[in-house]
Amino acid sequence: MACLSPSQLQKFQEDGFLVLEGFLSAEECVAMQQRIGKIVAEMDVPPHCRTEFSTHEEEQLQAQGSTDYFLSSGDKIRFFFEKGVFDEKGNFLVPPEKSINKIGHALHAHDPIFRSITHSPKVQALARSLGLQMPVVVQSMYIFKQPHIGGEVFPHQDASFLYTEPLGRVLGVWIALEDATVENGCLWFIPGSHTSGVSRRMVRAPAGSAPGTSFLGSEPAWDNSLFVPTPVQKGALVLIHGEVVHKSKQNLSDCSRQAYTFHLMEASGTTWSPENWLQPTAELPFPPLYT
Fold first, then answer.
1. In whole angstroms, what is the distance from residue 280 CA to residue 31 CA?
2. How far apart are CA 65 and CA 191, in angstroms?
3. Among 98, 63, 80, 131, which Cα is nearest to 255's?
4. What does the pLDDT look like over 237-246, one tens digit per residue?
5. Which helix (H) or strand (E) holds 71?
C-alpha cells in the first residue's frame, strides 16, 4: 500500500511537495485516458459556454469570473478551452480534442473510473499515512496540456482558490498520466514556500453581481531562480501542500502532458471559506475520501 515512510513525510513537511513515482500502473493510466477520450468525443459544448480558460489575472476575472459556467461547475463535468481555439463565431479552429485545456470539477463524483481511482485503497492509505482524519474531496480536474498550445500556469498557491480556516488543511494530489518533462510543461515548485500563509485570495462576488469573482491581495513577484523543475514519469503522484508556490510553463513540445488532479480537505475542525468560488451543493456535498 501507499504508506509514506518517516523520511518521505519529513521531506513533504520541509518542501511542501513530494513525488511518488510509480503510484499508478500503466493500465490505470490508460483506463483514465480512454475514459476521458470517450467523454471528450461525446462532449456537447453550447456556443455560449465556449469560454477560454486563462490563469492571467485580468483574463481570469473577465473570462472565468463573469461566467456562470465556471462558477457553477463545482458539482458537474464541464469543459474549458485553450486560448485561440475558437473563431469569433465560437467554432473550433482546431479539432475539439486538441483544443481542450481541462475538464472539471467533479469527475471524482460523476464518473465511475475517476471515482474508483480517487477513492482507491492506495489513495486512502496515503491519506491515512499523512494523518488525515476526515478527508473530503473538494474538486477534481483532468488537465490536457496540449502540444504547442498547452498554456502556461502562472505561479500560485492552491489555497488562494480553496481557502480554509485554519490554513494547511488542503492537499493537492496530482497524477501524471503521461511523462511530464521540462519540455512539455512539468510542474515547478519553490521548496519550503508553504510556511508563510497565502498572499492572494480569489473570492466569489455576491450573487448576481459582476464580475463573478475578484482577488484580495496580490501575487508577489516570485523569484524565478527559486523554482525547481519536477519532471516525473507516467503514473507518478505528486503531493502538493495547499500553500506551496508552484507553476508550469507553456507546452512547446510535440507531446501532451495529461494529468488527473484532485484536492482533499481535512474536514475535521476546518471551516471551508463561504467566499470560495467553489461551494458544496445540496446535490453534491464534498464526498468523504474514506469509504
1. 28
2. 30
3. 98
4. 999 999 999 9
5. helix 68-71
3-state SS assignment for residue 15 = helix
Is the confidence at residue 32, as pLDDT, over 60?
yes
Task: Look up residue 280 and give its amino acid.
Answer: P
Q: Which residues of 41-50 are buried (b: 16+ CB within 10 A; e: fewer)?
A: eeeebeeebb
Q: Assess whether the previous peptide bond of 211 is cis (omega < 30° from 0).
A: yes
CA distance 11 to 68: 40
What confidence tens digit (pLDDT) does each residue in 63-120 have? Answer: 544 467 888 899 999 988 888 888 877 788 889 899 999 999 999 999 999 999 999 9
- Which residue type, as a one-letter code, is found at position 15? D
Task: Report the pLDDT value the prediction gives residue 219, as an integer from 0 to 100.
Answer: 85
Residue type, 149: I
Query: In sequence order, which residues have a C-beta less than 8 Å from that of residue 128 and are 6 or more positions away?
Result: 3, 290
Domain boundaries, the chain: 6-45+104-272
Cα–Cα dist 108/139, whole Å: 7
Residue 50 — very low, low, confident or very high, per pLDDT cuts 50/70/90? low
- Cβ 173 vs Cβ 262: under 8 Å: yes
HSE of 67, CA atoms in CB hemisphere, 13 A: 20
Within a 10 A sphere around the Cβ of 180, how many other Cβ atoms? 27
Measuring CA to CA, which residue among 103, 115, 99 is closest to residue 36?
Answer: 103
pTM of the model: 0.93
Architecture of domain 6-45+104-272 in CATH? Sandwich (2.60)
| Residue among 164, 148, 131 at smallest CA distance from 286 | 164
Report helix, strand or coil for 60: helix
Cell numbers given for 165: 480556516
Cβ-based neighbour number of residue 232 at 10 Å: 22
On whether the CB atoms of residues 77 and 110 are closer than 8 A, the answer is: yes
